[in-house]
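tool=predict chain=A
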Amino acid sequence: VKDLDFGRKIITVRDAKGQKDRCVVLPTRLIPVLKEQVERARELHQKDLDAGFGTVNLPDALEKKYPNATREWRWQYVFPSRNLSIDPRSGRRQRFHLYDNILQRSLADATQKAGIVKKVHAHTLRHSFATHLL
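tool=predict ok
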C-alpha cells in the first residue's frame, strides 16, 4: 500500500529489473478504482487484525529491525488473497497477495471478450503503456 502515491499519481515498483526501484505513472482514470480496492484491502486487514492475524512478510531484514511493522497497514498488499495461509518460512497464518495466475486468467478473459485473437500477457501491457507514453 505504501508504494501508491495518489497525490503525485505514482506507483513505486520495488526491486524491479536490476534490483532497482522504479516510479511508474499512475493513470488518473485508475485512481478512483484503485482507491476502492485499497479500502477493501484495509477492511480485510482490519478483520484479520481483529482475529489475531494481519501480518505480512517484510523485505530483507526489516522484520528483524521493526518487528511490529508486519502488522502495519502501509506494508499490506493492495491485492490480498481471499484466504489466509500458513507461511512456510515464519509458520505464521497470514494473508499473501493474489497469485499471478489470477491476473493472467482475468487478462485472458478480457482479451477474449474484446475479440483480440493475439495472445496477450501482462508484459504486453507494459510494453504498450511504455510505447504510448513516448
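The chain has two domains: 4-98, 100-134. The chain is about 35% helix and 20% strand.
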